[in-house]
Amino acid sequence: MTDPSDDPLLVRAREALADAYVPYSEYPVGAAVRTADGSVFVGCNIENANYSNSLHAEEVAIAEAVKNGHDEFERVAVSSGVRDGVTPCGMCRQTLAEFCDGEVEVVCDEGDDVASYALGELLPNTISLETLEEADAARGREE
Ligand code: THU
Ligand code: ZN
User: Fold this and answer.
1) What is the whole-number distance in angstroms between the Cα of residue 90 and the centre of ligand 1?
2) Which of 88, 107, 122, 126 could form a disulfide linkage to 92, CB 3.0–4.6 angstroms apart?
3) What is the active site of this protein (predicted)?
4) What single-letter DSSP state applies at residue 36?
């Protein structure tokens, strides 16, 4: 058992919950990402009356980091503040995969414990620049 409050990155994800804007789901999510140089960026979910416009906590954390010049990440933490063992949704797994190797650890708050996954375990197949290049090459071969 790992106490989530002993994990500094997870503590940052928990703190980010306080900024969540969730009038529709009332389900706050906080995320924190640690960059290759040890910087930490956090995000929370920001909902919208047009539900599909809602931003997920992981997207906001990644956006904050990337706009500050970081595109290499070492570790990711996610919390929903309740004992539900939240994990990044499918869309966020792909968003993380754009910038994180499959070995990057994703830690998820379970209230009184921490669940740890490798990103590649959460999303074994990703769409990457190589995917697009391979499709392009395949089209070239067909012509
Ligand atoms: N949510 C996130 O912020 N991250 C995830 O990966 C899972 C879902 C948010 C979206 C919505 O505001 C709320 O949780 C309920 O789905
Ligand atoms: Zn998501």
Assistant:
1) 11
2) 88
3) 58 (proton donor)
4) T
Give the ligand at the shortest distance from the Cα of 78: 1
Q: Where are the beta strands (DSSP E) in 16-109?
A: 30-35, 40-44, 73-79, 105-109
pLDDT digit string (tens) for 45-104?
999 999 999 999 999 999 999 999 999 999 999 999 887 789 999 999 999 999 999 999
Which residue, 103, 107, 132, 130, is CA-closest to 119? 103
Domain count within the chain: 1
Both structure tokens of 94: 């792909």
For atom 3 of ligand 1, the residue with the nearest CA is 56
Sort strands 105-109 and 73-79 into parallel, antiparallel or unpaired: parallel
Is 88 close to ligand 1, i.e. is its CB under 6 Å away? yes
- Could you list the active site residues? 58
CATH number at residue 36: 3.40.140.10
Report residue 88 as tokens.
């990044």
Ligand with the closest atom to the CA of 84: 1
Cβ of 87 closer than 6 Å to ligand 1, yes or no, is: no
Give the confidence band of 143 by pLDDT, cuts at 50, 70, 90.
Answer: confident
Residue 106 belongs to domain spanning: 4-142
